[in-house]
Design brief:
The strands form 3 sheets. Strands 1, 4, 5, 6, 7, 8, 9 and 14 form an 8-stranded mixed β-sheet that branches. It is built from 9 helices and 14 strands. The protein is 36% helix and 24% strand. 44% of the residues are buried. It is of the alpha+beta class. Strand 5 (61-66) and strand 6 form a beta hairpin. It binds ligand DP6. The site of ligand DP6 has 17 residues, from helix 5.
Length: 343
């Protein structure tokens, strides 16, 4: 089985975070989404992961280091990930691996790192497999493996945008792994400035939130809405219809949080300053013709999406009117990127 390559070596991948425009919220079976989601892949917020490997005589073994320090607090998540993935990466049973990871974004920024972390690790694991045995569909398999770590991670494998989940609108779309979604040049020049409203980790995890969708009173209408929003978003992207793009992106963000507020038990992840920023953005748009829209992930932080041509206007707006709502005035400038890179 292992004729092709030798059983020791090292591989390193850089894999970015992503921001969903159509939100994945609710899952079924083993990490499969109840509705399709579409995201922009980011550029500057990424995880760099190295995996070094050598033969093991006593089965699969791993050690996880974050910024060169052993991190036992990640053990539970990683144990679950390897439990789910080892049958798809059977070569691991003969290896002992050492994982070393670091992020370009601060640990305490309230930015979810699971998408970049699991995609970077999965790319390394699939890459090792490729060096030992011939394997096809490298990126699809990496996305599949990433999904078993964290759903949104499977979209980080592709840039500039990525679609995960079966949709009759997009050929080859499926629930098992994400596929690349190409963008017109206009949207490739989009920025994402992340306003850090709250640096603390969130009070309710995404996994708990996904679980509450199972018995949610609005589950069926949410699934319908996500599919309709996806259809309209794809048309708006193709036609470069900015107003329609803004309408759908903001509707998705607010629906995500409305689902949280109406689940049983309900919870709120927005903070007062999240709402203050949204109101400022809406007044700004009433005054100025701008591409600026916002989206939210499962937390209090706000992602500002806008075209390169509006960079100066939006940056002035952020600095003069929005930074007062950010925790310690913190924000991160990112933009749409091309996807993971092997180092
Ligand atoms: C609100 O991918 O973090 O960011 O599969 O349980 O790891 P798990 O959940 P996760 O959920 C992300 C939810 C979201 C929307 C999105 O990214 O599509």
């Amino acid at each position: 089985m292992f004729e092709k390559g030798k059983l020791s070596g090292k591989t390193t991948w850089l894999s970015p975070s992503n921001i969903a425009l159509i939100k994945y919220w609710g899952k079924k079976d083993l990490q499969l989404p109840v509705n399709p989601s579409l995201s922009f892949t980011l550029k500057k917020c990424y995880t760099q992961t190295s995996v070094s490997y050598k033969p093991s005589t006593s089965g699969f073994k791993y050690e996880f280091y974050f910024e060169d320090k052993l991190k036992p607090e990640f053990k539970k998540k990683l144990d679950l990930f390897f439990k789910r993935t080892i049958e798809h990466l059977p070569y691991l049973n003969q290896l002992s691996i050492k994982i070393n990871s670091k992020n370009t974004f601060p640990h305490s920024s309230g930015i979810a790192s699971s998408a970049s972390a699991f995609s970077a690790l999965s790319l390394c694991l699939t890459d090792i497999e490729k060096s030992i045995i011939d394997s096809e569909d490298f990126y699809n398999k990496s996305s599949f493996v990433s999904r078993l770590g964290s759903g949104s991670a499977c979209r980080s494998i592709f840039g500039p945008a990525s679609l995960w989940g079966s949709s009759s609108l997009v050929e080859n779309s499926n629930d098992n792994y994400a596929i690349p979604f190409d963008l017109p040049e206009f949207f490739k020049n989009y920025h994402d400035t992340i306003l850090i409203v709250d640096e603390k980790s969130k009070s309710v995890s995404s996994s708990v939130g996904h679980d509450l969708v199972k018995n949610h009173q609005f589950k069926e209408s949410r699934i319908k809405q996500a599919n309709k929003n996806l259809e309209n978003l794809i048309i708006s992207i193709k036609n470069e219809d900015i107003n329609e793009f803004i309408r759908i992106v903001e509707n998705e963000a607010l629906t995500l949080h409305a689902m949280m507020m109406t689940s049983n038990p309900s919870f709120i992840l927005m903070k007062p300053n999240t709402v203050n920023i949204i109101n400022k953005i809406w007044s700004f748009r009433n005054e100025k013709n701008t591409s600026l829209s916002f989206t939210l992930d499962a937390g209090a932080n706000i992602h500002l999406l806008y075209h390169q041509d509006d960079f100066k206007t939006v940056q002035d707006f952020i600095k003069s009117q929005l930074l007062i709502y950010c925790s310690n005035g913190k924000y991160i400038d990112d933009k749409v990127g091309k996807g993971p890179i092997k180092k």
